[in-house]
Amino acid sequence: MSSPQTATSAQYDPVAVRVRGFGATVFAEFTALANATGAVNLGQGFPNFPAPDFVKTAAQQAIAADLNQYARSAGHPRLVHALAQVYGPLFGRTLDPMTEIVVTVGATEGIFATVQALVDPGDEVILLEPFYDSYPAAVIMAGGAPVYVPLRAPAGSHSAAAWALDLDELTAAITPRTKLLILNTPSNPVGKVFSRAELSALAEIACRFNLTVLSDEVYEWMVYPPAEHVRIATLPGMWERTVTLGSAGKTFSVTGWKIGWAIAPQPLAHAILMAHQWIPFAVSTPMQEAIAVALEESQARGYFTWLSAMYQAKRDRLLTALAEVGLPPMRPDGSYFIIVDTGALPVAGAPGARRDIAVCRWLTQEIGVAAIPPSPFYSEPHQHLTDNLARFTFCKTDEMLEEAARRLHKIKMVH
Ligand SMILES: Cc1ncc(COP(=O)(O)O)c(C=O)c1O
Question: pLDDT tens for residues 151-192?
């Protein structure tokens, strides 16, 4: 007979079911591989250039001013006021800074807190594929069920705009348990900017089926003319049922500061706050002060216009480099990502790994430029759609983009 102690240790199984299916993210694997091989890392989307001086100065002053204690849970007053000032005109309404905005630990916590606030166990959430990888995880941790509807691009497409949603497929996926639809525009990883017509069709469906929309708009300032960023919350009937997320990390090139926000009508914002108050409780006070100052100054400085022009030039530089070496790119209208067609590369799927993963390993190890395979942005049954795709980012210095272009030329020799 075993002792009670042995029985106890044999049964020791501390990990909750909700996280057992999660593995390391694709970014962890490819950043490690890029570091180990000395590859130019055009994989993970974080800017490698300095943040603007006016933003850094604001943070230094906030630290010097001893803004050291807990912030108001829903957001530091100066920041929510600055957000209401910037976003009010963009939403075409006066935003109440104290009841319609919740400051979060990056948009990532905005996603998690919103899903916690709105999704009950068993509720279904529509995720458009390719999705940002934290969406299914947030839904699963709330006990909800992700339901996947893919965007599809006709073969040989050269533009992110060609990726389209089949509205019949979408409506067929909606059931009486469907609660929420998560939208991402401009999108990661495709760089698609949903048009007003596409968003109007989605809005009509959301109203018809009484859905709430979580609209992740973290790349809102990286939209390249003639594309325009339309906020679904501004379409008829949508303000009441939309949560819009933004990110200071993306907007001011400070992804490590982890400041984001949710903008929503009072009942939804209140529900998000009820979840948020038990997740981080509050967000870093001096960093919120710094982002408030940055937002207050950004319009007078023409910062948003500068940001999108800066990224558009980088996009065009990388588009040219990719096209030149036989990696036909799908021209993004927004975000800082480019999807390319890798079909012509002489790389087969490795045993146990999808072809896109094998191709991205090959690009990293043999060509010296890391890219991200898009299959982790799809549910398993749809992962074959990405076999011939890879995602590159251009949120890097011009020197780094030039070095990547130089190395990518090696591809021409293997064609
Ligand atoms: C679509 C999308 N949403 C949210 C996030 C996370 O934003 P944050 O860094 O503010 O948490 C990212 C970051 O890559 C993203 O691509």
Answer: 999 888 999 999 999 999 999 999 999 999 999 999 999 999
CA distance linking residue 282 with residue 121, whole number of Å:
26
User: 387: Cβ below 6 Å to ligand 1?
Assistant: no
The CATH number of whichever domain residue 332 belongs to comes to 3.90.1150.10
132 within ligand 1 shell (Cβ under 6 A): yes
Task: Tell whether 217 and 344 lie within a shared domain.
Answer: no
Q: Is 146 helix (H, G, I), strand (E, B) or coil?
A: strand
Largest pairwise CA distance in the chain: 78
What is the CA(182)–ligand 1 centre distance, in A?
A: 13
Give the ligand 1 atom nearest the CA of 184.
1
Q: Write the pLDDT tens digit of every residue in 245-278.
A: 999 999 999 999 999 999 999 999 999 999 999 9
Q: Among 111, 215, 221, 250, which residue has the most ligand 1 atoms within 8 Å of its CB, making it the best to mutate?
A: 250
**Given 261, 277, 298, which residue is the final one in a domain?**
298
- Mean predicted confidence (pLDDT) in 199-206: 98
- Residue whose entry in the numeric block shows the structure tokens 């379409």: 235
- pLDDT of residue 350 exceeding 80: no
pLDDT given for residue 415 in this prediction: 65
Q: How much distance in Å is there from the Cα of 308 to the middle of ligand 1? A: 17
Q: Is residue 13 part of a domain?
A: no
Could you tell me the distance, in angstroms and rounded to a whole number, from the CA of residue 227 to the centre of ligand 1? Answer: 21
Give the atom of ligand 1 at the shortest distance from the alpha carbon of 45: 14
Q: Is residue 123 part of a domain?
A: yes
Has residue 2 been placed in a domain? no
Task: Using alpha carbons, list the distances in angstroms from residue 372 to 126, 230, 364, 395.
Answer: 24, 28, 10, 14
Whether the bond into 280 is cis, omega within 30 of 0: no
255 Cβ closer than 6 Å to some ligand 1 atom: yes
Which structure tokens are listed for 322?
């990719």
Cβ–ligand 1 distance for 215 under 6 Å, the answer no
Does ligand 1 lie within 6 Å of residue 393's CB atom? no
Would the pLDDT of 346 be above 50? yes
- Whether residues 248 and 195 share a domain: the answer is yes
Is there a domain that residue 308 lies in? yes
Given this model, what pLDDT does residue 336 score? 98
CATH number of domain containing 143: 3.40.640.10
State yes or no: pLDDT of 1 exceeds 50.
no
**How far does the centroid of ligand 1 lie from the alpha carbon of residue 72, in Å?**
23
Closest CA to 338 of 221, 152, 189, 218: 189
Helices (H), 38-104: 53-64, 77-91
Q: Ligand 1 pocket, 106 CB below 6 A?
A: yes
